[in-house]
């Protein structure tokens, strides 16, 4: 039997068995509509949703009422960015300037692009020379203006794993009276988060990046100091404090809550274990394959991910030669042609070099044996690309 090895936990994670067990009763047995609170079916569903809301709030240090359930981080990011712009834009007086970074996830970049179409002005920060892709407070401070409405900077980059100074940027925004959103999809559940300490106003995260189900996520919306307002994207029955209409995905939300609970309990030990495995993988590849190097700052980085260039090796061919190992190429052939990682481009890598890069991310089911197997197979298979 061909063994398959999954080293792409940043793309998605399997649902933890404990999460699955928690979800199952809510499909066919406890199936009520959480809004139908006049009968016991609805009351049971609502109780489960509110328990999950408490668990989701707990992992980021928020109040339960500050958690809005969504269909995932794409929706959370859209709701945060467009919601702020449209609400305060309509009110007037608060300005129409938004600050973000060139390395954000496409859903943040595209949301900002949509705002530009509407006449908002967006500043896209680029990483400084030698920064390894980490954005700093003074970089944000330099571009803030009197009419800046919102700053959106991701907590951790999905391709590099680099960690930005979110508490620092949060304090700056607070002092300047600018709203601050962070896409924390890759960070929540990996390292501790405290929205009060980090002075974050809005924070997005997703179930399927932390062993919860796909299609469910959340947006933290600060309720006090300041109370953040949003123009909803969906018009409807006014669910989720009118931020997000639509019948709640009860099984998904229960799973999301359970995933948050497990991550909060286990992240301290898990991050250490995964850091050891990641280092073993990275060091093994650096030692065994000539010309390999690591992309991005290695000191401010999530413990479970590495992004590496393989010298002259064409990594798409490498992946085809080792089909039993699942990793992520920094360039992907699409129907529209070859597409290179915008993150590595922002980091300053040339297209040719980007074709030699891979992102590898370890996770809950990864073992040292798997890591050693991958190092061996890659070392045996690495064929230099034709020059
Ligand atoms: C995966 C990811 C998203 C999108 O999340 P979905 O829940 O799949 O919509 C957004 N931002 C980052 C940083 C991600 O890694």
Shape: globular
Oligomeric state of the chains?
single chain
Give the cofactors and ligands. pyridoxal-5'-phosphate
Distance between the first and last residues' Cα: 36 Å
Can you summarize this structure?
The chain has 387 residues and is α/β, with parallel strands linked by helices. The chain is 40% helix and 16% strand.
Explain how this protein is built.
The mean pLDDT is 95. The radius of gyration is 21 Å and the shape is globular. With 387 residues, it is an alpha/beta fold. It contains 13 helices and 15 strands. Helices cover 40% and strands 16% of the residues. Strands 2-8-7-6-5-3-4 form a seven-stranded mixed beta sheet, sandwiched between helices. Strands 9-10-15-12 form a four-stranded antiparallel beta sheet, covered by helices on one side. Helix 1 (17-23) packs antiparallel against helix 9, helix 4 (73-91) runs parallel beside helix 5 and helix 9 (250-288) packs across helix 13. The longest helix has 39 residues, at 250-288.
How are the SSEs ordered, and which strands pair?
Layout: E1 5-6, H1 17-23, H2 25-28, H3 40-60, E2 67-70, H4 73-91, E3 97-101, H5 106-117, E4 121-125, H6 137-143, E5 148-152, H7 166-176, E6 179-183, H8 195-198, E7 202-206, E8 217-221, H9 250-288, E9 292-294, E10 305-310, H10 315-321, E11 325-326, E12 328-329, E13 331-334, E14 337-340, H11 342-346, H12 351-354, E15 357-361, H13 368-381
Parallel strand pairs: 1-11, 3-4, 3-5, 5-6, 6-7
Antiparallel strand pairs: 2-8, 7-8, 9-10, 10-15, 12-15, 13-14
Helix pairs in contact: 1-9, 3-9, 4-5, 9-13
Bound molecules: pyridoxal-5'-phosphate.
């Amino acid at each position: 039997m061909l063994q398959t090895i999954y080293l792409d936990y940043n793309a998605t994670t399997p649902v933890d068995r404990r999460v699955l067990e928690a979800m199952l009763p809510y499909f066919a047995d406890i199936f009520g509509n959480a809004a139908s609170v006049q009968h016991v079916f609805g009351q049971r569903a609502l109780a489960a949703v509110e328990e999950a809301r408490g668990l989701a709030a707990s992992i980021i240090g928020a109040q339960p009422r500050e958690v809005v359930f969504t269909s995932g981080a794409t929706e959370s990011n859209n709701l945060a960015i467009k919601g702020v712009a449209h609400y305060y834009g309509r009110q007037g007086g608060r300005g129409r300037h938004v600050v973000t970074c060139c390395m954000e996830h496409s859903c943040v970049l595209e949301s900002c692009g949509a705002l530009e179409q509407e006449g908002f002005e967006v500043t896209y920060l680029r990483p400084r020379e030698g920064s390894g892709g980490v954005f700093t407070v003074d970089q944000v401070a330099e571009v803030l203006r009197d009419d800046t409405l919102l700053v959106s900077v991701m907590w951790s980059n999905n391709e590099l794993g680099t960690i930005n100074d979110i508490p620092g940027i949060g304090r700056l925004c607070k002092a300047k009276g600018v709203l601050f959103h962070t896409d924390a999809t890759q960070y929540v559940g990996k390292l501790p988060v405290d929205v009060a300490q980090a002075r974050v106003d809005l924070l997005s995260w997703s179930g399927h990046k932390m062993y919860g189900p796909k299609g469910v996520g959340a947006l933290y919306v600060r309720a006090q100091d300041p109370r953040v307002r949003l123009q909803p994207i969906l018009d409807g029955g006014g669910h989720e404090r009118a931020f997000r209409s639509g019948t709640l995905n009860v099984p998904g939300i229960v799973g999301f809550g359970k995933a948050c609970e497990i991550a909060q309990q286990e992240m301290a030990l898990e991050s250490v274990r995964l850091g050891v495995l990641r280092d073993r993988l990275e060091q093994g590849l650096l030692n065994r394959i000539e010309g390999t190097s690591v992309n991005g700052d290695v000191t401010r980085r999530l413990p479970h991910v590495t992004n590496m260039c393989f010298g002259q090796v064409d990594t798409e061919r490498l992946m085809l030669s080792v089909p039993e190992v699942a990793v992520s190429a920094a360039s992907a052939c699409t129907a529209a042609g070859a597409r290179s990682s915008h993150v590595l481009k922002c980091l300053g890598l040339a297209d040719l070099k980007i074709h030699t890069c891979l992102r590898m991310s370890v996770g809950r089911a990864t073992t040292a044996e798997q890591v050693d197997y991958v190092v061996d197979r890659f070392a045996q298979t690495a064929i230099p690309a034709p020059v």
